[in-house]
Amino acid sequence: MQLLHAPSSPHLSIQTSKPQHLTWGFLPSVTVNSSPFSTLHFSLHSQKDQRLLWTPHKRVTSRAASVEVGDSSVSTGTAEGDVLKALSQIIDPDFGTDIVTCGFVKDLQIDKALGEVSFRLELTTPACPVKDMFEQQANEVVAMLPWVKNVKVTMSAQPARPIYAEQLPAGLQTISNIVAVSSCKGGVGKSTVAVNLAYTLADMGARVGIFDADVYGPSLPTMVSPENRVLLMDPVKKTIIPTEYSGVKLVSFGFAGQGRAIMRGPMVSGVINQLLTTTEWGELDYLIIDMPPGTGDIQLTLCQIVPLTAAVIVTTPQKLSFIDVAKGVRMFSKLKVPCVAVVENMCHFDADGKRYYPFGRGSGSQVVQQFGIPHLFDLPIRPNLSASGDSGMPEVVADPQGEVSKIFQNLGVCVVQQCAKIRQQVSTAVTYDKTIKAIKVKVPDSKEEFFLHPATVRRNDRSAQSVDEWTGDQKLQYNDVPEDIEPEEIRPMGNYAVSITWPDGFSQIAPYDQLQTMERLVDDVLEPSVQA
C-alpha cells in the first residue's frame, strides 16, 4: 500500500470507477469520519510506529467542489491530478492551507492533446493582497508540467455576501464584511483613519462603503467632497440611495440636509438604524462604520443591529486616551466582536534630524499588550494628513505613494487578512458530522475542539419555548427529545452563536459560551458509533 497524504477538505471531489473502501490506519482499528465526505480509519501498530495509510474510497463529493477528479488523479497522475497537484504547492498565507484545499480552483478545463489548461482562482475578496502572487505562481507551477504548452488563469472573487444574509435587513444582505473603526473618545483621529482605510481598501480592488454613525457631529461631509451632497430617497422602494466619491459609497446624517442633530438618545438610535438598514448599499466587500465616541445606547444599538466582522481601535499616546479606549475594547469583547488592529495616531514627528514624541509614548502598545490585539500601526503627525481631512480629499487619494498612504496600505492588508480568517473560523465553528452523529465545536480564537451529542444540545435550550420565563421551570422534559435527534441545519449567528434548526421546525440559538459548558462526548463514547 502506498503512503500518501490524504485530502483534508471537501473542495476536492474524488470519484472512483468502482465502489471501494477508504481506510486509514492506526490499530486498534477505529474508523472516524471527520466530515461527510471522507472516512478515516486509525490503526495503532505501536507507540513508535504510527503510519497514515490511504486506500481509495467511494466517491467523495462537496457542494463547494468545482472540479471532479478521478481516483487515478491521485494515484496515477492523470491530467487533472497533475494540475491539482501542481496547484496544491501554492499555500494561502492567511489560512496556512493550499489553494486547492481552500476551494479556490474553479472551472478547470484541460485539453491534453493541445497542451492547454485553463481555470479560475476564486478568492475570498477582490482586495486579496496576494492575488497577483497567486496568479503568477499558478501560471508557473502549471506551465512546468511537461505536457502543458499554454496556461490561462482567470482571477475572480466570491460574491459579496455575509455568512448569514437571510437574518439581516435587506440593505445589509449583500455586504461581506462590516468593520467598525472606534476610539470611544473624540478628537483622536478616528474619522481620519476610517475614511483613509476605506479608500485604501477601494484602491486594493474592493467595493467599499462608509457609514458615518456620528449623528451629533458627522465628519464625512467635511472629509470627502462628493458631487451630490444630499442623500436621495427612492420613492417606490422607500430606500436611501447613497452618494459616492471616488468609487466609495457614502452615507452620513450630514448628507441628509439636516446638518448636526439636536435630539435625544432614543431618537438618534432610530435615525442610525434607518440610515444604515434602509440604504441600498448594493454589493460591498467592506462597509466601514465610523463609530461615534462613547460606549452608550448608540454604540450598543449599532453592534446589535449590525453583524460586525471586526473592529479597528484608534488611540493616541496619552494615558487619558488609553482609559477611554480600554472601555471600547471591553465593549467589543462582550459583544464578541474581534479587535484586529490598533492605530496610534499623532504618535511622533521628525524635525532637525530628530524624532519627537509630543504626547508621550506607549498608549497603543499598552492596548495591544493588555488586550492581546495582534497588530499595531503608528501614524505620525503630518500637516498634509490634517489638511487633506479639511480639503475634502483623503490623504491616500491625494498622495497614494506617500509615507502615510504606505501605513494605510499595511493597515488595509491587515484588515483584509483578519476578516478572511474570521469568516473562515465562524463558518466552520459549529458543524454536524452525520457519520458519527455528533456536533463538532471549535470556537473562534480557541484551539480546543470537542464534540456534543445533538440531544444534549437540544435539551439545553434556554428559550421561552423550553424554559418558563416567569418561574424558570423546565418546560422541555428530558424524554421530549429523542436520543437519535439530528439537526437539519446549523448557521452562524454573528461571532457569538449559531442557529440550529431541528426536525420539529424549532430554531435554537446556541451561544458559543453555552456550548462550551455542555457535557461533551469523549473518545470512548465516540468510538462505538464510528467503528467500521
UniProtKB/TrEMBL annotation:
- Primary location group: plastid
For this record, the Gene Ontology CC terms, alphabetical, are:
chloroplast stroma
Alphabetically ordered keywords of this record:
ATP-binding, Chloroplast, Iron, Iron-sulfur, Metal-binding, Nucleotide-binding, Plastid, Transit peptide
Q: Which cofactor does it need?
A: [4Fe-4S] cluster
Residue ranges annotated for the MIP18 family-like domain, each copy included: 82-153
InterPro entries named among the record's database cross-references: FSCA_dom_sf, GBBH-like_N, GBBH-like_N_sf, MIP18-like, Mrp-like_CS, Mrp/NBP35_ATP-bd, NUBPL-like, P-loop_NTPase
The record's listing under CDD domains reads: Mrp_NBP35
Keyword Cell inner membrane among record annotations: no
* UniProt record, GO biological process: iron-sulfur cluster assembly
Q: Where in the cell is it found?
A: Plastid, Chloroplast stroma
Domain (Gamma-butyrobetaine hydroxylase-like N-terminal) spans: 438-508
One GO molecular function term of this record is: ATP-dependent FeS chaperone activity
Similarity-based family: Belongs to the Mrp/NBP35 ATP-binding proteins family.
This protein's name = Fe-S cluster assembly factor HCF101, chloroplastic
Q: Which organism is it from?
A: Phaseolus vulgaris (Kidney bean)
